[in-house]
Amino acid sequence: MIHCVLRVIFVILLVASSCRNEESRQVDARKTIPGRTEEPETLPVLISKSRAENKNIFLVFAFEKCGWCKIFEKYHNDPVVAEILSRYIIVSMIDYDKTPDGKELYQKYGSAGFPSWVILDKNARVILTSEAPMRGVKDRKYNIGYPVGEHEMAYYIHAVKTSSPLITSSECKLLREKLKFYHPGQ
């Protein structure tokens, strides 16, 4: 219970601090992640790209004022993370307000809260979502958003492995280390 209260307080402080000097800290994932284009890609474009490259699609749902979304974006923009993930999957940041079909995609595939994510196959069928099993509670799930803590990081790595069976253990280890690096409490 105390952990939940502390996490809520931390998120409130993070969101409040992220609103300051927003323009100077803005990161444009479409320009920095390999394979990104200037304009956000719609699902039909991503599906076409997915089929051509024989890769699954990793959609991350975010919005501009979300502190955890910014952290997840920094994680995906990290050169090591981007290089590893781009070998196996197509990562696309979906801004709820700015991506042409962002609201519709979130309503169809998103989990409650931001960030949330979904991994789709080449036919837009769901492989896994950010709805992780709740520890110690049968048949309950919750949106992990940005993976924090061992249980959430393990679920995220499991999702990446499930959608990308050729990813190596050493690459997964690097992804886990980068998750810890970008977590503000680490």
Record field, number of beta strands = 6
**What is the CATH third-level topology name?**
Glutaredoxin
Q: Approximately how much helix is present in the residues?
A: 40-55%
Radius of gyration in whole Å, from Cα?
16 Å
| CATH top level label | Alpha Beta
Q: What's the CATH superfamily, by name?
A: Glutaredoxin
Strand content: 15-25%
Total count of domains: 1
Poorly predicted regions: 3-38
Mean pLDDT reading: 81
Question: Can you walk me through this structure?
Answer:
By secondary structure, the protein is an alpha+beta fold. The chain has 9 helices and 6 strands. It has one domain: Glutaredoxin (3-Layer(aba) Sandwich). It has helices at 2-18, 22-25, 29-32, 43-53, 67-77, 79-88, 102-109, 149-163, 169-182; strands spanning 56-62, 89-95, 116-120, 126-129, 131-133, 141-143. The protein has a 4-stranded mixed beta sheet, sandwiched between helices. Strand 3 and strand 4 form a beta hairpin. Helix 8 crosses helix 9. The chain starts with a helix and ends with a helix. The model is unreliable at 3-38 (pLDDT under 50).
Layout: helices, strands, pairs:
Elements: H1 2-18, H2 22-25, H3 29-32, H4 43-53, E1 56-62, H5 67-77, H6 79-88, E2 89-95, H7 102-109, E3 116-120, E4 126-129, E5 131-133, E6 141-143, H8 149-163, H9 169-182
Parallel strand pairs: 1-2
Antiparallel strand pairs: 1-3, 3-4, 5-6
Helix pairs in contact: 8-9
